Amino acid sequence: MTASPATESPLHYLEDAIAQLKRDGLYRTLRVLEGEQLPRARFDGREVINLSSNNYLGLTTHPKLKEAAVQAVRSLGVGPGSVRTIAGTMALHLELERRIAAFKKTEAAVVFQSGFAANAGTVSSLLGKGDLIISDELNHASIIDGARLSRAEIRVFPHRDVTGLARVLDETKDVKRRLVITDGVFSMDGDIAPLPQIAALARSQGAIMMIDDAHASGVLGRAGRGTVDHYDLHGQVDVQVGTLSKAMGVLGGYVCGSKSLIEYLYHRARPFLFSTSHPPAVAAACLAAIDVLEQEPERIERLWSNTKRFKEGLQRLRFDTGSSETPITPIIVGEAELAMRFSDQLFARGVFAQGIGYPTVAKGKARLRTIVTATHSQEDLDRALSILGEVGRELGVIP
Ligand SMILES: *Cc1c(COP(=O)(O)O)cnc(C)c1O
């Protein structure tokens, strides 16, 4: 008996897509973390040296953040009960926004549920039909989605290519409103945007300058203030996005800038208007994270000394670490299938370094993505390097 069209699920094409992922070596099961997000952690029943989290400073388990969250639950409950614009703005939310603005040295800030929501909500509400968004080709997916939602035109410039950006700006002088946008630190390559040149170009052409500092928050600049502080460009970037989900150890995204920018986003950014705000525990833990950044600068120092030690080790082993300048250190191997096999064999020997392939990175640029943290010990890093060397040689990734 043949199945009639009516009995075949309309979602049948998903099975074909999944089969294709398997053929391409891109099919993944989710690794399950059992316990806390630590430099040595248990995933899928195995203790591994964890090179895959964004927990740069070890704040996911910091006692001060935990205590702040617990206290907030005790005194304020577990949920805010509404979106920000109706009944869901708590004093803690406003306190966090004031703290972030002061930390970033801007007039004001608004917090979103995530960095993704911050980017998508901001780009889509600042620009509209007839406007132009000029975006680095390796910018984060949330910027791309925000750009598409805005219905503005999108022009992409080659990665970190200031000349390419200048060309696009020259060709589009007649467009009334233009936004130049770049990641501060690129999430898959760990390189830093040439922000002084990009911001100067945007300014000279009257374009809005926006940066997504998800991977620079808590990592670059004084006390982790980000790329703008790193280059000392305060006042020259109109819109700064950051995340509370990575080095800050909790969850959330924010936008910093002028008071009018933030007031506008309060009225127009759709995730702010139509999605419930953070639980009090999240806001309280984020406030404690800013305290820790200011009070424990040694964490950032250790992050960078660990980064240097680990990078030098990888380079001694002759791995291709691309153009990374930050704790995000790719080990580029080429084919996705090889990256996944490399990752699996490392895991079996006690090192967790996630394999990344298309569409997260370009075809032929598949890689392991590693991030060391401030909380890795020297023994952790040396052991990880020795296992990376062994497996890398076995698979012919290095000589
Ligand atoms: C992770 C990331 C985001 C999203 O941040 P979340 O808080 O995890 O939603 C945005 N931009 C970049 C560049 C990122 O790496």
UniProtKB/TrEMBL annotation:
Keywords: Acyltransferase, Biotin biosynthesis, Pyridoxal phosphate, Transferase. Residues 47-386 form the Aminotransferase class I/classII large domain. One of its GO terms (molecular function) is pyridoxal phosphate binding. InterPro entries: Aminotrans_II_pyridoxalP_BS, Aminotransferase_I/II_large, AON_synthase_class-II, AONS_Archaea/Firmicutes, AONS_Archaea/Proteobacteria, PyrdxlP-dep_Trfase, PyrdxlP-dep_Trfase_major, PyrdxlP-dep_Trfase_small. Pathway: Cofactor biosynthesis; biotin biosynthesis. The keyword Acyltransferase applies. Its cofactor is pyridoxal 5'-phosphate. It catalyses: 6-carboxyhexanoyl-[ACP] + L-alanine + H(+) = (8S)-8-amino-7-oxononanoate + holo-[ACP] + CO2. It comes from the Bacteria. CDD domains: KBL_like. One of its GO terms (biological process) is biotin biosynthetic process. The modification N6-(pyridoxal phosphate)lysine is found at residue 246. Its EC number is 2.3.1.47. Catalyzes the decarboxylative condensation of pimeloyl-[acyl-carrier protein] and L-alanine to produce 8-amino-7-oxononanoate (AON), [acyl-carrier protein], and carbon dioxide. Belongs to the class-II pyridoxal-phosphate-dependent aminotransferase family. BioF subfamily. Homodimer. This is 8-amino-7-ketopelargonate synthase. It comes from Eiseniibacteriota bacterium.
